[in-house]
Design goal:
The protein is an all-alpha fold and 754 residues long. It is built from 38 helices and 2 strands. The two termini are 52 Å apart.
Length: 754
C-alpha cells in the first residue's frame, strides 16, 4: 500500500521523503502480534480464575514462599543454599519468590503452605494463594504466543489456544519460563544465516536459561548442535564455544550451583533419575508412547467440569497436520529442518524418559504448531493455484461451465445430504460428551453444542441434558484404552492378508482361464463369480455354520472328537497358533533392563501382531472368499485389454514364460490390478457383516475389528460418543492407508487408465 504524501513533503529529496513513508506491512504484523498476545492473555487470565489446583502447585508455591523470605531478609547465601524441591533448577521458583515478595505482604509468605502428599485437586485455597504466581505464568505464556506470532501469527495463535500450553502456563507450575526461553532460542536460530553473529550467541544464553528453568527444555540444544554441524561442518570450534556459553549462562542463572557446582548438580540429576525409575512413576502404567497420546489429544479431564476455560480443544487435529507436514519441512529450508530436528529430538527424549507427565508435551508445542501452519499454508497455496486454473478454464468456456453446473447441482445437493451432513454429525458426536438423555434435543442440540464449543462459549443449560464440548480430548480415553491399538492392528492385518491372498488367487485364476484350450471357460468363470453374487451377510452366515464347534462341517470333515470340539473353538479361539510374544520375551526383558523401553515396546507390539489365533485365519478365509471374484474379473478385463500384437512381438524377441509375464503382462495390467486392490481393500477394511457373524461375541477385545467395536459400543453401552470416535478413527485410518497406497503405486493414474 503506497502512502500519499502532502505536497510540501513531495517536493523534498527522495531520502527525506522516505522518512515520512509508513511501512504498512510492519504495522500490520505488529497489530497481529499484539492481537495474538491479547487473545492468549485473556484466555489464560480466565483459566487462572477457573482452573482447580494442580498436583504440584503446593510444592512450587511453598518453594516460592521460602525464596520470598530469603529475598526479604537479603540472605544471598540462603537463596543459593535453599534445597526445597531441589530436583528442578531454582530459576523459576526464584522468580516465584520475587513475584510473591512484590505482590504479597510478609505475613502471607512468612508461613509457607504445607506440601500435601497426594492429589490437591480439592484444595482450592492453594489456587487462591498462588493467584499471583498463576497470573505471572499467564503473562509469560501469552508472551510466548506473541513471540511465535512475530514469526508466524497463525502459529502463535495455535500456541496461545493450545489446551496443554494454556493449562500449564495458567497455574503455578514450572513450565512457562523455560518454555518461553526455549521458544526464543528456536526462533532466533531459525533467523540466523550462519554459525556466527550476535543473535546466534544470544541463542546460547537463552538455551542456558532453559536449562536453569527446567532440564527438559534444554534437550532442544542437542537438536541445535546437530543442525549447526550439519549446516557448517567446519565450524565445530565455534559450536563448542556456543555450548560453553550456554553452560556458563546455566551456571550463573542457577544459584544452587554457585558454591557447590558439581555436588549439587549431581544430587539434582540423581534425584531425577531415581524418581523417574521409582514406584510412583511405574504405578502410573503409562507406556513409552504416552507422550504421543498427549500430543494427539487435548486436555481430557477438565473440560467436563470447567468448559469455560478452554476455548478451542482441537490440539490433536493440528498435531496430526503438523506430523504430516514434517517430511515436507525436512526437504525445505534450513530453518524448517531445524524445526523438525527440534521436534524429533524432544519427542525421542520423551519416549525414552520414564516419566510421562502431560506437562512435558510443552517442549514440542511450538515446533508442532509451526509444522501445522506449514501444512495449512501448503493447502491454501494449492487451493489458490487450482482456483486460478479453474478461473482461466472457466473464462475460456463459460457456457460449458454453466451447462455442467446445472447437471452437477442435484448431485452436489444429494452428496451434501447423504455425506456431508452425516460427517458433521459424526464430528459433533466425537467432539462432545453426548449421552442418551441428549437424544430428545435432536441433531439441532448436538450441532448447536458443537458450534458453541468451537466459539469458546459455555454449554447451553436450557437443553434437556447439557452437552459438553470436549474437542478432541475424548480421543484421550480411546488412545488410553489398552486394546485399541491391537484392534487397529487386527483390522489392518485382516484386510491386508485377505486382499493380498484374494488378489493372488483372482489373478492366477484369470491367467489360467485366459489360456487357449481351457474346457468350459465360461462355466468356470460363472462358478467363480458366484461368491460375489451371494450377499456378504448370507455368505458369512454360511461360513459361521461350517465352522460351528459342535455340528460344523469343518469339524465333521476333520473327524474331530466330541470332547475336543468343546475345548477348542474356531470362531472364539484367542490362543495364537504360534506365540511370537513368548519367543521374543527374553529380548524384550533385556531391552527393558537396558532402559530401551521404546524398542522393547515396538518389538513386543510386532510380535503380538504376528501371534494370530485360528479365528483370525477363519476371517481371512472368508475375506478371500468374498473378494477373489472381483479381483478375478478385474484381472480378466486387464488381460483382455493387452494387444495380441504386443504379445506376439515379445515372443518374437524371445520372451516366454515367467519373463514374458513379468516384463510385458504385469506392467500392462498393474494399473488395473492396483485399482481393484484399492477398491476392494477399502470395502474389506470397513466390513461389518463378516466379523459380526463370525466373531459373534460381545467382548470388546483386541481380536476384533473397528466396525464391530462401533456396534458393540452402541448396542451394549449406548455410548454414542465412543462409537463416533471409533468411526472417525476408522475413516482417518482408511484415508491414511489409501494415501500411502496411492503414493507407492500411483493407483489414481491406474484408475484413470482403466
Amino acid at each position: 500500500m503506497e502512502t500519499i504524501l502532502p505536497p510540501e513533503v513531495s517536493s523534498l529529496p527522495a531520502k527525506v521523503r522516505n522518512q515520512y513513508r509508513i511501512n504498512w506491512k510492519v504495522w500490520v504484523r505488529i497489530g497481529l502480534v499484539l492481537s495474538v498476545f491479547m487473545v492468549s492473555l485473556l484466555v489464560r487470565l480466565r483459566a487462572v480464575e477457573f482452573l482447580p489446583s494442580d498436583y504440584d502447585e503446593d510444592d512450587y508455591l511453598r518453594a516460592g514462599q521460602l525464596y520470598a523470605q530469603k529475598i526479604a531478609a537479603g540472605d544471598i547465601s540462603g537463596v543459593a543454599n535453599l534445597r526445597e524441591n531441589y530436583e528442578h533448577p531454582p530459576m523459576t521458583k526464584l522468580a516465584f519468590g520475587v513475584v510473591l515478595f512484590f505482590t504479597q505482604s510478609p505475613a502471607s509468605y512468612s508461613q509457607p503452605v504445607t506440601a500435601f502428599s497426594g492429589s490437591v485437586e480439592a484444595k482450592q485455597d492453594i489456587a487462591e494463594k498462588a493467584r499471583s504466581l498463576r497470573t505471572f505464568n499467564a503473562i509469560v505464556g501469552a508472551i510466548t504466543a506473541g513471540v511465535v506470532a512475530a514469526i508466524n501469527p497463525l502459529a502463535g495463535l495455535l500456541v496461545g489456544l493450545n489446551s496443554w500450553h494454556l493449562k500449564y502456563t495458567s497455574q503455578a507450575m514450572l513450565e512457562a519460563l523455560p518454555c518461553l526461553f526455549a521458544t526464543i532460542t528456536l526462533l532466533i536460530l531459525m533467523r540466523t544465516k550462519r554459525n556466527s553473529g550476535g543473535w546466534w550467541w544470544t541463542a546460547a544464553a537463552t538455551l542456558g536459561l532453559c536449562a536453569a528453568g527446567k532440564y527438559l527444555y534444554a534437550v532442544g540444544g542437542v537438536a541445535a548442535v546437530i543442525w549447526f554441524l550439519w549446516r557448517e561442518r567446519e565450524s565445530w570450534r565455534r559450536v563448542l564455544l556456543w555450548v560453553g556459553l550456554a553452560l556458563l549462562t546455566f551456571y550463573v542463572a542457577d544459584p544452587s550451583l554457585w558454591f557447590n557446582p558439581m555436588g549439587n548438580l549431581l544430587d539434582s540429576l540423581a534425584f531425577n533419575t531415581g524418581y523417574a525409575t521409582g514406584t510412583q512413576v511405574q504405578n502410573t502404567g503409562f507406556a513409552w508412547s504416552q507422550p504421543l497420546t498427549w500430543l494427539l489429544s487435548a486436555v481430557p479431564w477438565l473440560p467436563r467440569e470447567h468448559p469455560e476455560t478452554f476455548p478451542l480443544l482441537m490440539d490433536g487435529v493440528f498435531s496430526i497436520l503438523g506430523l504430516v507436514a514434517l517430511w515436507r519441512m525436512w526437504r525445505g529450508s534450513n530453518s524448517e529442518r531445524l524445526v523438525v530436528l527440534w521436534f524429533g529430538i524432544n519427542m525421542l527424549f520423551l519416549f525414552f524418559w520414564p516419566t510421562k507427565w502431560p506437562q512435558y508435551i510443552l517442549a514440542v508445542t511450538v515446533p508442532i504448531s509451526l509444522a501445522a501452519v506449514r501444512f495449512m499454508q501448503d493447502v491454501v497455496d494449492s487451493g489458490q493455484r487450482n482456483w486460478r486454473q479453474w478461473r482461466e478454464l472457466r473464462g475460456r468456456s463459460r457456457t460449458h461451465w454453466k451447462a455442467a453446473l446445472s447437471w452437477f447441482s442435484p448431485t452436489i445437493l444429494i452428496l451434501s445430504i447423504i455425506v456431508l451432513y452425516p460427517l458433521l454429525l459424526q464430528t459433533a458426536l466425537a467432539s462432545t460428551y453426548f449421552q442418551v438423555g441428549s437424544l430428545r434435543d435432536g441433531a439441532g442440540g448436538l450441532i448447536g453444542a458443537f458450534g458453541r464449543g468451537l466459539l469458546g462459549l459455555p454449554p447451553d443449560y436450557t437443553l434437556s441434558k447439557p452437552i459438553i464440548y470436549s474437542g478432541n480430548g475424548s480421543f484421550f480415553g480411546l488412545l488410553m484404552w489398552e486394546p485399541f491399538l491391537g484392534v487397529i492392528r487386527f483390522n489392518i492385518m485382516w484386510a491386508g492378508f485377505s486382499i493380498a491372498l484374494a488378489t493372488i488367487l483372482g489373478l492366477w485364476l484369470a491367467t489360467l482361464l485366459q489360456r487357449k484350450g481351457v474346457f468350459g471357460r465360461q462355466a468356470w468363470r460363472t462358478l467363480f463369480i458366484l461368491p460375489w453374487a451371494i450377499p456378504e451377510f448370507v455368505g458369512a452366515l454360511i461360513w459361521s455354520t461350517l465352522f460351528d464347534d459342535v455340528n460344523g462341517g469343518v469339524n465333521n470333515f476333520l473327524n474331530v472328537p466330541a470332547e475336543a470340539r468343546l475345548n477348542s473353538s474356531w470362531l472364539g479361539d484367542s490362543v495364537p497358533l504360534i506365540n511370537f510374544t513368548g519367543i521374543v520375551k527374553p529380548i524384550v526383558d533385556t531391552l527393558n533392563d537396558w532402559r530401551l523401553t521404546p524398542f522393547a515396546g515396538i518389538l513386543e507390539y510386532i510380535a503380538a501382531g504376528l501371534s494370530l489365533p485360528r479365528s483370525f485365519w477363519v476371517l481371512v478365509i472368508v475375506g478371500v472368499w468374498v473378494s477373489f471374484p472381483f479381483m478375478m474379473l478385474v484381472s480378466t478385463v486387464a488381460l483382455r485389454s493387452i494387444s495380441i500384437e504386443v504379445m506376439e512381438a515379445a515372443r518374437v524377441d524371445g520372451a516366454k514364460g515367467w519373463n514374458l509375464w513379468r516384463g510385458i503382462t504385469w506392467p500392462l495390467i498393474r494399473p488395473s490390478i492396483w485399482a481393484g486392490v484399492l477398491l476392494r481393500g477399502t470395502l474389506l477394511f470397513n466390513a461389518f457383516h463378516i466379523p459380526l457373524m463370525l466373531i459373534n461375541n460381545s467382548r470388546v477385545g483386541e481380536n476384533n475389528t473397528l466396525a464391530n467395536i462401533t456396534y458393540l459400543s452402541m448396542r451394549y453401552g449406548s455410548n454414542y460418543s465412543v462409537a463416533a470416535l471409533v468411526n472417525v478413527v476408522t475413516m482417518g485410518a482408511a484415508i491414511s492407508l489409501i494415501w500411502l497406497f496411492n503414493r507407492q503405486t500411483r493407483v489414481v493414474e491406474g484408475i484413470q487408465y482403466v
